Amino acid sequence: MTQQPINTILFDLDGTLLPLDQDQFIQDYFSRFVRKGQDLGYASEMLAIALQSGITAMVQNDGTLTNKERFDLVFEEVSGIDAEEFNERFASFYEHEFGFLKRHATPSPLAREIVHEVKEKGYTVVLATTPLFPWQGTKARIDWASLDSSQFSLVTTYEDFHHAKPNLGYYRQILQQIGKEASSCLMVGNDVEEDMVAQTLGMEVYLVTDCLINSTNKSTASYRTGSLQELAIFCKELPPCNH
């Protein structure tokens, strides 16, 4: 497959293992987040600005804080709300309202088949979803995809990670935590900017085209590409992994 055999596969979640209308999902997420905040007595316009500011701060995180710490800091600065208090009052959002966002996903049985296939062959498997959500929101989306967090050696969430895609620091932290070299990894994702950037570090990449995101219309000629169905076939044809 490559000059150095691949022994680790990183999978993106939204739009990859979990086919998803990203724009509708994000729009609905913002709407429900603000509505929940309103129900708790917070001003809607201020919440929307604080949420957007917090997300932007995580995407631009310099690595000195975790994404959660960065979000809480900026959210508190912008909103004037104590972040710890807000998080406690808001926790039920991910147990209840967040579940309604599943309607923007079209889960495929191929996801479980693909992950099972590479696990059986001995590959280390990472769920490399950009860490902008807390664990509860990440676990919910894993469940929507009919997957289980125990199938992955690492799941990236905002509590533990210090960068977000497409920052290369995000991928470097994954490599550090799993003790792997970039050249032994394959990154599978649907976003040209956020996922295929892993190629810069020396990873092999696979661009899943079902829910393709290519906001800058970049050429995809240098990437292995295919549908989720074609990815399933590709994984079946992978050799057993010899770590």
State the end-to-end CA separation. Answer: 15 Å
CATH homologous superfamily of the largest domain - what is it? Answer: HAD superfamily/HAD-like
Query: Biggest sheet: strands, sense, closure?
Result: 6 strands, parallel
Number of strands: 6
- Oligomeric state of the chains in view: single chain
Given the structure, what is the number of helices?
A: 8
Overall number of domains = 2
What structural category do the secondary elements indicate? alpha/beta
GO molecular function: hydrolase activity
InterPro entries: HAD-like_sf (IPR036412), HAD_sf (IPR023214), S-2-haloacid_dehalogenase (IPR051540)
Keywords: Hydrolase
Protein name: HAD family hydrolase
Quick take:
The protein is of the alpha/beta class and 243 residues long.
What descriptors fit this protein?
243 residues, alpha/beta, Rossmann fold, 6-stranded parallel β-sheet, 8 helices, hydrolase activity
Notes on the protein architecture:
With 243 residues, the protein is an alpha/beta fold. It has two domains: 8-20 and 106-237, HAD superfamily/HAD-like (Rossmann fold, 3-Layer(aba) Sandwich); 23-101. 40% of the residues lie in helices and 9% in strands. The chain has eight helices and six strands. Strands 3-2-1-4-5-6 form a six-stranded parallel β-sheet, sandwiched between helices. Helix 1 (22-39) packs across helix 2, helix 2 (44-59) runs antiparallel to helix 3 (67-79) and helix 5 (109-120) runs parallel beside helix 8. The longest helix has 18 residues, at 22-39. The radius of gyration is 18 Å and the shape is globular. The model has no long low-confidence stretch (mean pLDDT 96). It comes from Sphaerochaeta halotolerans. GO terms for molecular function: hydrolase activity. InterPro entries: HAD-like_sf, HAD_sf, S-2-haloacid_dehalogenase. This is HAD family hydrolase.
